[in-house]
## 1
Amino acid sequence: MIIRFLTQLADKAGTKELELKLEQDITDVRGLLNRLAKDHSSVAGAVLSQGDLAEDVYILINGRHISALGGLDSLISDSDVLVFVPVTEAG
Amino acid sequence: MPEGRYDRQLGLPELGNGGQQKLAAAHITVVGAGGLGSSLLFSLAGIGVKNLRIIDHDTVSLTNLNRQFLYTPADIGLNKAEQAASRLAAYDPDLKLEVFAKKVDETNIYELIEGSDLVIICVDSANIRYLLNETCCRLGISYIDGAVNAFYGYISYIIPRSSACYVCQNGPLHHVDRPEGSRTGTAMVLGTAPAVIGSMQAQLAASVILGCSQAVPGNRYYYNGKDQSIDMVRHQRDPDCSCCGTADLYKDGEMGK
Ligand SMILES: [Zn+2]
């Protein structure tokens, strides 16, 4: 699957994009976050806070906000594009 | 309009053949005359947008002046919408300016944005973005959103009930609801970031009015002020969206006009 990181998340993660082959036992976003925490420390440092999705980060799956899909239980597969989005709302 | 003011752009095919008149005729409402609004309002007035409604209840403070170049130290304590209007009127005396020095809320939002051809959101509050999104969806008014953070920001052009809306993009309000100002009130922003994003909003608005925009409605364009890249993020409209979805809001026909 393709995982994209926007603006400051890309800066912190050190990459704009990560291509991952999902292991059999990873079927949802929660599983993916655990995998990132285990194997991709710089990425995890950008988007996670104490193992959970950071409060000021949200996720899109194929252009849909995960809250509309099932939150951290949203199912994912290798053909999906995930985007980690930093909350941006100052004017 | 005075002869010659727009000579440097009238030779563009998009501006000749009536384009300049389209800019002059459009009624644009700008919500928020802060960092985004400073460059946006000057840019729109510069290219010949003549009908501007400026909404901001806030007063100018010293900490605004790293980015809100509509104002000077002499404006501190005065209302932003009124001071912005007086500065813009000096820049172009032909402007037709409407000023609302009011806080946008559920009771006045229809009055504030009704009749606009295009709304441009330059506020620093997610809660107000949700309220504006819902109202634009109900009234069927297209809008341009923009926001910044640190060295970064995004713009987006939203056509209600056609493209993804702010709720489709951002998730429902309860995911982000929090006391106003708890995060953005003190958000750290390099003063140049809102100048860039406000200018991008103005450029997008001009393209939309001129009918030559190729930005994909509902998508967001994220600007990275460190590596100078712009990344497009695709957003799909959520058929069950609480705001623009087909589920309940418009079902009774009352709001579906
Ligand atoms: Zn929506």
## 2
Amino acid sequence: MMLSCKEATRLMSMQMDRELSMGERLQLALHLTACAGCRNFRKQIGFLRTVTRKFGDQIDDSK
Amino acid sequence: MALTFQDIEQHRNYLLRYAIFQLRDETVAEDVVQDTLLAAVEKLEAFAGQSSVKTWLTGILKHKIIDAQRRMVRDPLLLDARTDEDGDLSDFDSLFDTQGHWGSDAPRSWQSPDQSLSDQQFWKVYEECARRMPKRTAMVFAMREMLGQEIDDICKNLDITATNCSVLLYRARMSLRLCLDKHWFGGSPLEKT
Ligand SMILES: [Zn+2]
């Protein structure tokens, strides 16, 4: 059974917070090989993490 | 070199903005910052100078924020649990077709995202996008991604289920991604609300 993009986005979000099961990982990997939209999504939520971690340092003292 | 009250006080605005981002409530944030400054003054001698004053203060602030979040989550007046807590994700349905595959809004690649990090304008858009998230969603997201807490600790602290926690994080990522996609990478200007 092929994952939908909606399900894939849920799994990709979960993967940022906990380990996925073998089954979940396999399904996700299969989906990602076939879906450019979800590959972009994955990169982008990873970028959100980088950005949010950096945000604290970006706050300007002078304002 | 001894630290003075001025050395601490000059970071008040930074601490306040940091706390507001986390707590989404100015009054609570003011209290937390006040508390932090006081705690810092009380242990001025404890500041060993291995880190910058700002880093030291932020460390104290983080603990105070976590305490405040714990209190806030139990106070129904401060958080609107009804709008934030349900697991309804239908607000993202329009992104997908009936089979659950991306519709016309499938994520397109972002052009040189890393360069954005050194662009002041980017941070303004980011802050505004983050501000648009519902309170509880924003709080859980900040705990996870800014304070770097583990998801189990967040659920325990906030006394919410693991499923709920993961739904809130999903919603935060979806909405923040969409907002940046539209207003930064897509170039459509952001109107302040
Ligand atoms: Zn997909």
## 3
Amino acid sequence: MSKLRYALYTGCTARESTPELLKSTLAVAEALDIELVLLDEATCCGASHLQDFDDFLSLVLNARNICYAEKLNLPMVTICNTCQLNTSLTKERLDHDEKLKEKVNEKLREVGLEYKGTSEVKHFLYALVDDLGVEEIAKKVKKPLKGLNWAAFYGCHNIRPSELQNKSNGGENPYNPTSIDRLIEALGGNSVDYEHKNKCCGFHVELQAPKTANRLSASALTDAIDNNADAVVTPCPLCHLRFDVQQHNISKEAGREVHIPIFHLPQMIGLALGIEPEKLGINHNVTEPDFIS
Amino acid sequence: MEEIAKKRLKFKVFRFNAERDYLPHYDEFELEVSQDEVVLDILNKIKWEHDGSLSYRRSCRHGICGSCAIKVNNKPVLSCKERVFDLVEIFGEELVLEPQDKKRAYKDFVINKSNFWEKYNSVKPYLIAQVDEHPKSENIVSPEEAEKIEDADYCIQCGNCFYACPVVEANEEYIGPAAFVKAYRFTADVRDEDKKERLEIVDKIGPGVWDCVKCFECAEACPKELSPITKITHLHNQIFEEGVAKSNVAVRHAVGFKHSIKKHGILDEGELVRYSEGNFGVLKHLPEAIAMFKKGKIVPPWKMPKSKNLDEVKKLIKSSSTTKF
Ligand code: SF4
Ligand code: SF4
Ligand code: SF4
Ligand code: FES
């Protein structure tokens, strides 16, 4: 197989509040011999909020981001579910509406860019499980995740709306997603079966409706804990921020002690590949795992 | 003749009678199912051949009355539309049949849907217009104007989106996806004269669109593929276009992204929270901010990263902005 190469759209969180996500992504890519070219020109995707205010502006900015991947002639990978949603939704709309594409390109041309639609957009998770393959990753495991129960939390914007997401997520079913669970097993861990794995963490209303956000998170985490999870793993930095940084508030809403370490997907993979925890930024996690030496 | 595939499947069926039972239980049935049968065929088979007391709603059997909605392995379905074999493909050979909302069950699959209808009625689900009873000319709606409504008038009020919505469960006030679709059906109708008032209703923090968590469960659940969340986005846009938006934390949060992108290209997370909450409100996030700071999760303002070619971004924001606040 020829070397896998992608343009990496980091999103904002990986450069600010979840530096461990960027660190662990780069470390895992290196260990798996995947080349990632950073898109330093890219802006924020609007995090599924900007389009509520200004839909057209959101389209133009997201199209601009994709342009830079197209310039490199590379498929784009994202490492945040919501970036994935906004980017692929923009792509979908422009690729199926010539008029809209032309309207957007009119603006982009003013700064010397053009959106063509030549780069695919997928989340890094699916670059790993669909392009590289779970078996390939399994071959490189040095420290199997033996004896640990991992609860996969998929995050909405990788699996819904399925009509859109199925174009880049290997046909994952939103009611019964399996990719992360398959990955966990391939890394030697036990994947936890629990009802809330495909539910929402509530991140997007954290400011205006903290009670709702904490309720949704509490249902998810207590479900994972009650099904004997030792840790939760997620491909979405927003879910991670919610569960990791807000765990004390989630506890309050749950009315019981909620205490469980939360990992980014590449952090978990990195541990199994034998990468030092330091390089995976585990020290940045607020919920400290007690099983890593 | 082509042979019809058949399978023996196990069904776990939710049973509850509010007049008699304290807790629900599940009955198990093993049935032979053929490839063309839908979930409603299974319910009928159980009722007609095994247990006549099984209760569920159905009427048209054509996906139009919206009464037969239930959940199978937590997936909202219209019983008369969903093929059993398609469900087996997703969930395997054991299927769990449950009402849309277990807490609201009267008897088996028949639920108390009053919360759905209350919310539905709260958006004034009817055209409000002064009708001239003796018009001198036709009241013409152009095809382009009619298209604005999209497919919002195809809703069959099945409630699948509503009972799949996690916010409906977490926040009793929340109007919910079906009623938002209905609200949009009229705010997008050129004949309607109550657009602003409707937008005021859905703009309220608590019941309104700002409390949507953007999980897309409604889009996934809708048997008519109406994508309620897309209509919710349109309502957000109309709230700004019609000048209904108030300066509150949710509105500033949406607007704040633009300011941040203009300044840095990427988002200034700390500044977004400050801008949204205000200088005083932001203080309540202090405990989290301290925990994050200790873990190296806060970038100080002087180290804030910027996107390359930021001048491009500034130009685009100037040329492509369509709304003001
Ligand atoms: S799970 Fe929460 S944070 Fe993650 S993508 Fe969905 S809404 Fe966003
Ligand atoms: S996207 Fe919004 S309205 Fe739709 S199910 Fe989720 S929270 Fe409810
Ligand atoms: S929007 Fe769709 S799912 Fe919701 S009530 Fe109408 S038809 Fe049913
Ligand atoms: S019976 Fe009418 S929609 Fe199913």
## 4
Amino acid sequence: MSSCKYDAIVVGAGIVGAACARELKLAGLNVAVFEASGTIGGGATAAGMGHLAVMDDSDAQFALTSFSQRLWSELAPELPADAELLPCGSLWVAADDEEMAEVHRKYAFYTARGIPVEVLDEHQLAQAEPALRPGLAGGLRMPADSVCYPPCAARYLLEGIPVFLNHRVTRLEDIDAGLTILATGTAVTQFVPWAPVAPRKGHLLITDRYPGYLTHQLIELGYLKSAHAVATDSVAFNAQPRATGQILIGSSRQFGTEDPVIEQHMLTRMLARALEYMPGLANLQGIRTWTGFRAATPDKVPLIGLCPGFDNLYLATGHEGLGISTSLATGRLISDEILGRTSEIPREWYAPGREFAHHE
Amino acid sequence: MNSRRSVTGELRAPLCGMGICFECRDENQQRTCQLPFAPQVRSPRSPGIIIVGAGPAGLAAATKLRDLGLSFTVLDDNPTAGGQIWRGDLARTQTLGSDLITGTRVISIDAEARTLLLEDAERAYQLPYTKLILATGSRELFLPFPGWTLPGVFGAGGLQALVKSGLDVQGKRVIIGGTGPLLLAVAALLRKKGADVRLIAEQAPLASLSTFAKALLRRPAKLLQGAGLGWTLAGIPYRTSTWVTQAHGDESLEAVTLNTGHTEPCDYAAIGCGLVPNDELAQLAGTSPHILTAQTGDVDLATLAGTAAACRAAGHPFNEAPLTDARAFDAALRQAFTLRPELRNLAAPDTFVCRCEDVAYSRLTPWTSFRAAKLQTRCGMGPCQGRVCGPAVRFLFGWTDTSVRPPAFPARIATLAKTEGDL
Ligand SMILES: Cc1cc2nc3c(=O)[nH]c(=O)nc-3n(C[C@H](O)[C@H](O)[C@H](O)COP(=O)(O)OP(=O)(O)OC[C@H]3O[C@@H](n4cnc5c(N)ncnc54)[C@H](O)[C@@H]3O)c2cc1C
């Protein structure tokens, strides 16, 4: 491709960088990865819940998540056991009639697009997840969703690819490669100051092992309201069964801070919310908490593709709370663009140079 | 004694005797080594000085504060005061009376609001403080070797603590190993309780021990203690440059092999490779003018450090000279009992280093930092929160841990969901 040492350098060994590097390698490019920290997947990827979900916030989001889900299911048979892929399905929990109306809307949306979904009434919900409090309105089951353990999935994606750890890129000019892909998560603004990406902090807690306590990844439908409320700090009930039998409880969303410290008041709010949905969690043991930063964009759609003003710099960031889910599709879109292939979904939806109208 | 099945199905029994290894926990994380973990019904108190830890340092701090006429509260997660060394020693601990709250863990510290989040067997509550004295003492360094996860293999201080809490060792054949003067104290106690102590295997060479003996000579009180032990220990073989390389048994300990090649049948092995400070709370709290940490070490050092911390908390002068002296002695002691590099090579590829998650040694060697190893292998991700494997991987690979976050100990979700005012 050129006289450079590598055809392509991916900056960032998170799951998004890992997926990009893998696709480029599969396409025959000589690719390497530079990672600032001493660890693969030590950034947002280590913090993420690893819920592999299809979402319907926008056409762009639906296309990317559903395409990526197909890529995950193709990859599933070869994933190592420690990637802990668990085909548990998701269950959106509706607390009241208003949220139940949202269940029906989602049902129609997904059914029209060939995604398997199932509406649960109050009793079916209680049967599906007995630990939920009685009196909830119902839910929407998405059986094709799953969960994984992202740091090990990222490591697997990078197998056979040179990864230079403790290698922080400070100037793009120093990179000796034909192409550079910036998969630096929230740090993208260091290189592309105008990139509309802001860190959005989240808290999580994991319990000791309680096999069988939960069956599905549970998300309250109120999550939609809180995920959209960009102005204020918010919490939403989110509980996930891990392959180990542990339960991962989330989550919170905050703008305006880059301090990773556990904020007791956010943790308290988040757990109090979880207890409203699952009172029995009260007596389970929490063993560890952590925080992480999602790379948020104004329209909640990532930046994937050629960076305006460059002919050899690509961006793969801005995945907010869905970067584990959408990593594989991101890698595919990036390699399609670089190799001049057509893509299965419209790439212009994710173009970094698109107009950012606020979708509030 | 409680036991449990590990995540790969191994039978496990207590190791540490002090509530940190989680090998004897029940489904509520209740550790048998800490029973009874009884709730203490307390009315909310007005803010005062809080001492965390009722071992020698905490007790010394309490005594000093009392002498100065100041009120205080002592918290401890064990059922009785005394720490590891004076556990159940009523003469030393009963003076605390109602100023002592046992069976209570500090889960989190809010240094800005100056409050502690506490949990006992039944409740969670917040307790405000004016000054906080952290006297959390130390735990043992446990180094992995083949068979170290077998029931019957304890820490040296671990078996000592369990015996003080009532474990019957009458007639049991015991091998004591590891390093340091603690081994002698453990041997003396075990013999007193009727155990058949077969051997004390001290890894340090004789030459470094004679340096230690010289240091003892400068401290007559220590010498007397040593001599007293000498009497009790008469007849127990004490071998230097000797260490346990393997433990054998099928679901419980039957024998150990030494580096000399000799295999000795035994019922229990008590192996401690020195002490590491319990500094999680200090790390969690960060630096604050309202938080004082009492350095840990041998009883003398801990006592002086506790007194010093109390004086500083009270704004009272303190004579530093004896503390400086005790630190120098502690340093000499550590020097004499430096761990030999051979101990880094004891673990076999399939020896578990992380007992909570059953992570074998060979799974750790590809990684270059504790964080990478944690993320890729789950090492240190279990309920002991790396208290056992953390110091071990520091010794084995030079890895240090990255951060301490709440909860300082596993805690009920209800506790962590507590909001202010929930007293
Ligand atoms: C609390 C929380 C929960 C989440 N839950 C989910 C979920 O359930 N499902 C889901 O799909 N997503 C979830 N996410 C989102 C997901 O974790 C992220 O979108 C995803 O991990 C982003 O991956 P990444 O590779 O872009 O970023 P990162 O993992 O942050 O990787 C970026 C890497 O770039 C490196 N880097 C940065 N600057 C440089 C430089 N100058 N030189 C070299 N290297 C550099 C960093 O060290 C880092 O390793 C969650 C996120 C959070 C915070």
